[in-house]
Amino acid sequence: MDPRPNVLTDETRPNTLSTQSTGTAPAAAGRAVAPTAATASNRFAIANPSARLPATADSRFETRGRRAPSLATIIIVGFLVVTAFRVIGALAGRLVPDQASVPTAPAFVEGSSIRQGGISFGTATDGLCGIAGIATGFTSGTDIWWSAHLVRSLEDPIEAIVLKVVHDGVDIEDDTTSGRDLGANGSAVVCAVKPRDDTTPGQYIVQLWDGAQRQILASGEFRISG
Fold first, then answer.
1. Strand, helix or coil at 139?
2. ∠ CA(15), CA(17), CA(19), 5° rounding?
């Protein structure tokens, strides 16, 4: 009796495809197998390293072209410069005294230089019947001084003189005084010893009469505006 198991005599080996291939030749012993095209296609594409900035590069320090200033910027800067010069000039003018604006003493006119029989009015007096700032019109509140050159000399320094003042045709003052009280500076010159305090606008007439009120010794007029 044969000890081997029974086998079919016609049994053949399983069929295999003689054309089946893995796409690559068997690797030779001892050699590394090169990656196939299919394997390479499954990897992410890597950008060209040369297109990247160096690791130490900083975009803040990139060279950029300068832009010309706009017209609006030029106008604003010019305006600021002009304004600064004006402010500096104004401050300098206040801090540096103006040598050309040194105040000068007013020119006083002596009473004897006034037309005989006339009265002149001004804004200042020298205390000797000389006045300065002579005018015929003044603003309300101005100190008004007067000086008169009488038509004749006083017979006596204490001779009575009547002072009359008319405002717009209305008598507002009628006082009896003397040449001495009127600061007589010479036999024919008298003047105010204090300024008039008239403030009401209008036309004023000032007259000096003799004590008997028969003769006008001097006369003058001025106007006050509001």
1. strand
2. 155
Which residues on adjacent β-strands are paired with residue 220?
Answer: 206
Residue 86, pLDDT score: 82
- Using CA atoms, how far residue 87 sits from 82, 92, 213, in Å, is 9, 9, 65
User: For residue range 134-160, what is the model confidence (pLDDT) as tens digits?
Assistant: 999 999 999 999 999 999 999 888 999
Residues 6+ positions from 136 with CB-CB distance below 8 Å: 121, 221, 222, 223
Average pLDDT over residues 202-222: 97
E strand segments, the chain: 118-122, 124-125, 131-132, 137-139, 145-149, 160-167, 170-178, 189-191, 202-210, 216-225
Query: To the nearest whole number, what is the mean pLDDT of the chain?
Result: 78
